[in-house]
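F.,

This is the one I mentioned.
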């Protein structure tokens, strides 16, 4: 399939789309959010190619094969075709290529393929403008997926670091276990005047008693020796760990003959060594020529044995901690290397808000040195005007819950007219303990400039279109009025159709101009004291004929005497017209549209309720986005480009008001906008106009 240069589709992604793809980085662990991200990506890709189906494949790290992760509107056969096309596309050097009727987009980051998107072209033309959009999707999605893996690894290792550091802090002294046990054997011999002492530890793997240290005449022979547990002095100690004193070994009969013959002992003192009531070995003292052991010797020996057990426990902990610290140093080096090569700035703070990690990209974005920031409060990195809010956000993060999904995102202006997007999330241990925050910083100066340039371009094009369209409409009116001679019925019908399409194009151009002005902050408002009730009734008057043609009854309910507001009357009427017209368009014949006006919580509220098909829950959050349209014949049959609700939202918010939606599938929708009443306290309200 060939690429064509002329396209009616956009050639770049919007700021909102880029931000949504970037949020893939934060959604990887959440199946619901991840599903929404993949749905958004396929929506953008299919919109760019005018496709009706797509599939997302993720590359399996172990097998290296592509696995279907998400698909939209593909039957089983087309999914199989999409899989084949995606696998064939991997061998192509291009980021975007066409394979067997599918546009295959590689999701790539730093040369590594993370997956692909296969878009069903349905034998349609494939425009070159769409290629640039798909390339941008591939790069941004691949980068977000790589960043997601990196962030997950960082957070997991930070959790490990915290747990191991707690262990390392418990170690007060650093001593080699062999030296500690050697000192115990030596001091034990001196304390009880024994000719021989030994420390034996149980090796449960070999089921032997291992004499790790000894002191006295037979030390060289005993140290390192092993005896089966069933034929060792361990058999003399019962399960309760009661010490054993035998002052005449030959007469007692409990000591194995092998031990008596090998060591030549006459008296024996054995005390078990225990850690948390678990016997780990025994401390032994023996005499070959000397006297008996007294009760005092037993008490002293028990104390020394307890110290020996503590030394072993301490040494085990120290060894584990030392190993962990070495591993942490290696992990830290890896983390620093990974962070250093991330394109986004990363700043990690502890629970007090002090910076503990800052990568090179964050240095470049903030213009601050890492050495100057480590240990400082993170809000000090923000421009003075944002510091108070940043501090409040960090405090709120500490008060959030692990499963709350809390985050804060805002674009801020840095010195040098640099625009930076700040995204902050809390970091928790698995136990729910708040560790601190992770901040991702992105320099979006170029994206903002591109958006502004795009808005300016749209505004210019719209202005250039409006003048000839107005002239064309005037000329058609003159011809229809007989200015150039009589017009028969057939000609009059054709001219009327042309006039209607001119009106439609002029409205579209006006909408595009309004959107461009809202984005640049240049939407003009003629403020005055306005009766919302009168403006809504005027909109109803103009739309009543349109409603009658479609078999829809318009019902207006005015509750009480709503006061006037300060606003632009024409713009308020424009909002009411948009909402009522939409309700009429999407209502079945024979139903009614109810318009309700009332005063509530310091606002004048206008609700438009229809009995249409309702709006799906997943679409309700996007219904006020620019150019957003619902799928399906019911929504497509009346045309439109999806600007009316976006413009309405912008107008209402410019008045300091709010606009909301409440909808149930199969039961209809209620759109409500509320405008503040001057001099009255305004409170947030829910849409309760059902």
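My design for it:
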């Amino acid at each position: 399939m060939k690429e064509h240069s002329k396209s009616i589709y956009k050639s770049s992604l919007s700021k909102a789309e880029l931000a949504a793809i970037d949020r893939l980085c934060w959604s990887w662990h959440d199946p619901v959010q991840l599903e929404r991200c993949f749905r958004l990506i396929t929506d953008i890709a299919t919109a760019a190619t005018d496709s009706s189906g797509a599939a997302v494949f993720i590359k399996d790290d172990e097998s290296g094969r592509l696995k279907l992760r998400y698909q939209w509107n593909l039957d089983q056969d087309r999914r199989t075709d999409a899989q084949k096309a995606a696998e064939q596309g991997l061998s192509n050097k291009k980021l975007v290529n066409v394979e067997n009727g599918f546009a295959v987009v590689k999701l790539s980051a730093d040369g590594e393929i993370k997956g692909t998107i296969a878009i069903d072209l349905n034998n349609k033309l494939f425009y070159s403008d769409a290629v640039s959009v798909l390339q941008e999707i591939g790069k941004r999605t691949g980068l977000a997926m790589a960043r997601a893996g990196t962030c997950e690894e960082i957070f997991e290792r930070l959790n490990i670091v915290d747990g191991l550091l707690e262990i390392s802090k418990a170690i007060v002294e650093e001593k080699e276990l062999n030296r500690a046990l050697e000192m115990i054997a030596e001091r034990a011999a001196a304390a009880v005047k024994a000719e021989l002492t030994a420390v034996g530890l149980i090796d449960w793997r070999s089921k032997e008693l291992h004499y790790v240290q000894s002191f006295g005449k037979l030390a060289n022979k005993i140290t390192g020796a092993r005896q089966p547990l069933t034929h060792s002095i361990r058999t003399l100690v019962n399960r309760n760990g009661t010490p054993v004193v035998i002052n005449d070994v030959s007469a007692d009969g409990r000591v194995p003959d092998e031990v008596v013959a090998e060591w030549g002992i006459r008296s024996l003192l054995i005390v078990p060594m225990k850690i948390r009531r678990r016997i780990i070995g025994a401390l032994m003292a023996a005499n070959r020529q000397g006297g008996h052991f007294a009760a005092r010797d037993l008490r002293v020996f028990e104390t020394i044995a307890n110290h020996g057990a503590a030394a072993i426990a301490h040494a085990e902990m120290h060894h584990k901690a030392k190993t962990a610290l070495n591993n942490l140093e290696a992990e830290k080096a890896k983390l620093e290397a990974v962070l250093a090569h991330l394109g986004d700035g990363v700043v990690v703070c502890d629970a007090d808000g002090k910076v503990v990690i800052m990568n090179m990209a964050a240095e470049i974005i903030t213009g601050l040195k890492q050495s100057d920031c480590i240990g400082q409060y993170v809000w000090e990195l923000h421009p003075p005007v944002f510091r108070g809010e940043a501090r409040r956000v960090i405090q709120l993060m500490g008060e959030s819950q692990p499963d709350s999904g809390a985050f804060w995102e805002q674009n801020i202006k840095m010195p040098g007219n640099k625009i930076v997007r700040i995204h902050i999330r809390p970091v928790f241990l698995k136990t729910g303990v708040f560790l601190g925050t992770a901040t991702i910083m992105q320099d979006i100066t170029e994206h903002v400039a591109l958006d502004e340039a795009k808005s300016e371009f749209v505004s210019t094009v719209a202005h250039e279109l409006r003048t000839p369209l107005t002239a064309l409409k005037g000329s058609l009116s003159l011809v229809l009025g007989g200015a150039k001679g009589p017009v028969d019925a057939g000609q009059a019908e054709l001219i009327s159709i042309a006039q209607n399409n001119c009106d439609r194009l002029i409205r579209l151009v006006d909408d595009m101009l309004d959107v461009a002005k809202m984005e640049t902050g240049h939407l003009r408002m003629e403020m005055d004291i306005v009766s919302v009730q009168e403006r809504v009734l005027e909109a109803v008057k103009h739309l009543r004929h349109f409603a009658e043609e479609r078999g829809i009854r318009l019902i207006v309910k005015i509750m009480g005497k709503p006061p006037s507001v300060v606003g632009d009357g024409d713009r308020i009427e424009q909002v009411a017209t948009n909402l009522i017209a939409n309700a009429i368009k999407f209502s079945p014949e024979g139903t009614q549209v109810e318009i309700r006006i009332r005063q509530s919580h310091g606002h004048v509220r206008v609700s438009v309720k229809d009995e249409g098909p309702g709006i799906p829950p997943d679409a309700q959050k996007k219904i006020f986005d620019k150019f957003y349209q619902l799928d399906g014949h019911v929504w497509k049959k009346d045309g439109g480009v999806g600007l009316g609700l976006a413009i309405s939202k912008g107008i209402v918010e410019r008045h300091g008001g709010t606009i909301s939606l409440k909808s149930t599938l199969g039961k209809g929708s209620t759109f409500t906008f509320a405008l503040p009443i001057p001099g009255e306290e305004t409170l947030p309200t829910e849409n309760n106009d059902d």
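Confidence is low (pLDDT under 50) at residues 1-9, 159-174, 632-637.

Talk soon.
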